[in-house]
């Protein structure tokens, strides 16, 4: 017979004698099974003396402790005497420990006052700002070292990262860019058709994709895909003390871990954006040929007539910037991560949020700057 | 917590013909042993011999490739999911690093198994969690997060969590790893105390000789080349009487003498 089937339920028999209540416990007491309730057993009676016995108990654990403790507490509340002298000494010891934890089981208050909270937040914001500046500074210095001593750079890691963030991203970048091209062409088709200006769908899609949507959609995909991966990898390495191990050897974690990633993203982002541009234009072309019956050749010639090298150039310059921003925010959040599973998770989330925020803010800046410069 | 002698019959853990491994790699073959109830049983052996692998297969974290594991006379590895879940209440597991859930306080860590498997009310759960933490010497640390305490304390908190459901069997994976000798000895004392107090069967995976000689009733030694058990018995008896040079070398640290 296994222990799983042989268990008898916990039982309590209550006998009243001249001295008060005699409570005899028996059966198997398991914490995972339901146990009797003392208040239900005694009902409205208020005994003046309770004697607990447990000779017939076959097995017991914390469940029995809790029951006897419940009797003790009830007796204490009603001023009755609870006699546990008949229970084994180790049960009495555990009851003593339970009573001690009963008194200490109030959670302590971790909340701060409002002013302390504001103060802490300010100090925290300042130290974070310093960390960001320091990190960007270290990256610049590391970039200078890369230019001076290119043979010391970890090209192997960089190429691995390029494979990861470049080639491996192609499927998702293709899908997103194609669909963005399709969506824009549809929107444009509905409006332009009213004026018989169907062919200008090519102009609208071409310019919007090359100048804005191509680089931006590629960047947002990479922020989610690669930025989060950078933060999680570096966060985990920090939790495992791998980063400390580098510092202890006198190797700069920025040179060793951050630069290969940032360089990889900086090189791959413009290429991915160029690819996204092509796929996006193709999406527009498919919609134009199906919905507006514009032949692909006409669409292509119209696109060529409106999109010039400066449009492509500005798009690629933006893509390079976005790539650096994604790399910087991913690595920064990873290095700032707390040394715990939760910290790594937070770092990954924060890396994506920071990267997308920086992408949108810098894109706005570019829009204004390019407008002023007339490119 | 068996108190009746009749309940102490039959082994707590029964392993027959167990083959352990991952994917295509076989690490241990034909491992059979039993652990008596209330025994402190060590699985010993050099690094990489498959001690932790054996433990993972025992507790069901990895499915055995062959063979069977029984706990308290009932099938475990061969049982259906519902029976296994019921069996899991019977054993506690202390991972090497404590494996505390970092987003929960120590009290919440210990309370989680109680919330999952019992019908106790919140106050009782909080009290029991405090009691368990008190038993491992962490009274007063109930509301700390794992990141705020030391490695040894994490291990003790992990032990409190493993004790939450008063398991009949406790598994320890390298309890001394990363602990100083004094903390390590205190943990050993705690293990013995738990056995004395609750009659718990204790299975420890370790290569810490001091602990092995101090508290193990019986050991099995695993060996990498043999892919299985090469010795079984009381540690001191094995060290002095075994003719197997691998066993002798391990148990005497290659010196031929039992280390003090």
Topology:
The complex is a heterodimer of chains A (375) and B (260).
Chain A (H helix, E strand, L loop, with lengths): L10 E7 L2 E9 L9 H5 L6 E11 L2 H17 L2 E3 L5 H16 L9 H35 L6 H11 L4 H24 L6 H40 L2 H7 L4 H39 L4 H11 L2 H28 L4 H33 L2
Chain B lengths: L10 E12 L2 E12 L3 E5 L6 H8 L7 E6 L2 E2 L5 H8 L2 E4 L11 H12 L4 H14 L15 H13 L5 E5 L7 H18 L2 E5 L3 H7 L2 E6 L4 E6 L1 H7 L3 H7 L9
Parallel strand pairs in B: 3-8, 3-9, 6-7, 7-8
Antiparallel strand pairs in B: 1-2, 1-4, 4-5, 9-10
Concise overview:
The complex is a heterodimer of chains A (375) and B (260). By secondary structure, chain A is α/β, with parallel strands linked by helices. Helices cover 71% and strands 8% of the residues of chain A.
Uncertain spans of chain A, ≥5 residues at pLDDT below 50? 1-5
Could you tell me the strand content of chain B as a percent range?
Answer: 15-25%
Helix content of chain A: over 70%
Residue-averaged pLDDT of chain A:
91
Cα-based radius of gyration of chain A, to the nearest Å: 35 Å
Strands of chain A, total number: 4
**What oligomeric state do the depicted chains represent?**
heterodimer
Description of the structure:
The complex is a heterodimer of chains A (375) and B (260). The longest helix of chain A has 40 residues, at 200-239. By secondary structure, chain A is α/β, with parallel strands linked by helices. Chain A has helices at 38-42, 62-78, 89-104, 114-148, 155-165, 170-193, 200-239, 242-248, 253-291, 296-306, 309-336, 341-373, and strands at residues 11-17, 20-28, 49-59, 81-83. Chain A folds into two domains: 11-102, Transcription Regulator spoIIAA; 131-373, no CATH class. Chain B starts with 10 loop residues before the first strand and ends in a 9-residue tail after the last helix. Chain B contains nine helices and ten strands. Chain B is of the alpha/beta class and 260 residues long. In chain B, strand 9 and strand 10 (228-233) form a beta hairpin. Chain B has a six-stranded mixed beta sheet with strand order 6-7-8-3-9-10, sandwiched between helices. In chain B, strands 2-1-4-5 form a four-stranded antiparallel beta sheet, with helices on one face. Chains A and B meet through strand 3, helix 2, helix 3 and helix 12 of A and helix 2, helix 3 and helix 4 of B.
């Amino acid at each position: 017979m296994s222990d799983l089937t042989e268990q008898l339920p916990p039982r309590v028999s209550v006998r009243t004698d001249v001295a008060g209540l005699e409570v005899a416990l028996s059966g198997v007491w398991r914490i995972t099974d339901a146990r009797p309730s003392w208040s239900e057993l005694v009902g409205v009676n208020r005994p003046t003396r309770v004697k607990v016995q447990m000779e017939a108990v076959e097995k017991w654990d914390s469940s029995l402790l809790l029951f006897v403790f419940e009797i003790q507490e009830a007796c204490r509340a009603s001023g009755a005497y609870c006699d546990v002298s008949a229970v084994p000494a180790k049960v009495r010891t555990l009851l003593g420990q339970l009573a001690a934890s009963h008194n200490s089981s109030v959670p302590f208050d971790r909340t701060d006052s409002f002013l302390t909270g504001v103060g802490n937040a300010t100090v925290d914001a300042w130290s974070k700002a310093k960390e960001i500046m320091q990190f960007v500074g270290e990256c610049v210095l590391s970039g200078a070292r890369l230019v001076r001593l290119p043979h010391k750079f970890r090209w192997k890691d960089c190429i691995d990262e390029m494979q990861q963030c470049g080639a491996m991203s192609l499927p998702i970048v293709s899908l997103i860019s194609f669909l963005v091209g399709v969506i824009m062409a549809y929107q444009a088709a509905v409006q332009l058709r009213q004026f018989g200006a169907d062919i200008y769908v090519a102009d609208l899609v071409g310019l919007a994709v090359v100048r804005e949507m191509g680089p931006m959609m590629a960047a947002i995909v990479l922020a989610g895909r690669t930025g989060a991966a950078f933060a999680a990898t570096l966060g985990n390495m920090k939790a495992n003390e791998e980063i400390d191990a580098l510092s202890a050897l006198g190797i700069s974690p920025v040179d060793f871990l951050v630069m290969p990633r940032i360089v990889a993203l900086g090189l791959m982002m413009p290429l991915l954006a160029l690819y996204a541009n092509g796929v996006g234009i193709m999406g527009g072309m498919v919609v134009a040929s199906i919905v507006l019956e514009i032949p692909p050749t006409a669409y292509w010639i119209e696109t060529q007539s409106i999109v010039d090298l400066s449009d492509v150039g500005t798009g690629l310059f933006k893509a390079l910037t976005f790539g650096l921003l994604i790399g910087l925010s991913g690595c920064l959040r990873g290095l700032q991560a707390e040394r715990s599973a939760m910290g790594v998770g937070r770092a990954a989330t924060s890396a994506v949020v920071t990267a997308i925020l920086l992408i949108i803010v810098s894109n706005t800046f570019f829009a204004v700057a390019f407008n002023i410069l007339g490119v | 917590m068996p108190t009746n002698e009749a309940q102490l019959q039959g082994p707590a853990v029964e392993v027959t013909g167990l083959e352990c491994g991952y994917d295509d790699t076989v690490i241990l073959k034909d491992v059979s042993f039993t652990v008596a109830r209330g025994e402190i049983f060590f699985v010993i052996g050099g690094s990489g011999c498959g001690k932790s692998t054996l433990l993972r297969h025992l507790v069901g974290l990895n499915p055995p490739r062959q063979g069977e594991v029984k706990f308290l006379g009932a099938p475990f590895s061969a049982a259906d999911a519902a029976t296994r879940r019921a069996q899991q209440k019977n054993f506690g597991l202390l991972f090497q690093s404590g494996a505390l859930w970092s987003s929960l306080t120590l009290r919440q860590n210990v309370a989680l198994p109680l919330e999952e498997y019992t019908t106790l009310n919140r106050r009782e759960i909080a009290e029991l969690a405090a009691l368990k933490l008190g038993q491992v010497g962490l009274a007063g640390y109930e509301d700390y997060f794992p990141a705020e305490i030391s490695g040894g304390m994490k291990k003790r908190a992990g032990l409190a969590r493993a004790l939450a459901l008063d398991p009949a069997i406790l598994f320890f994976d390298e309890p001394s790893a990363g602990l100083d000798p004094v903390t390590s000895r205190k943990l050993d004392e705690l293990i013995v105390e738990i056995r004395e107090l609750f009659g718990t069967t204790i299975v420890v995976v370790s290569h810490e000789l001091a602990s092995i000689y101090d508290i193990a009733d019986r050991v099995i030694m695993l060996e990498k080349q043999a892919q299985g058990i090469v010795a079984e018995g009381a540690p001191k008896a094995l060290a002095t009487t075994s003719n197997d040079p691998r066993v002798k070398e391990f148990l005497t640290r290659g010196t031929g003498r039992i280390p003090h």
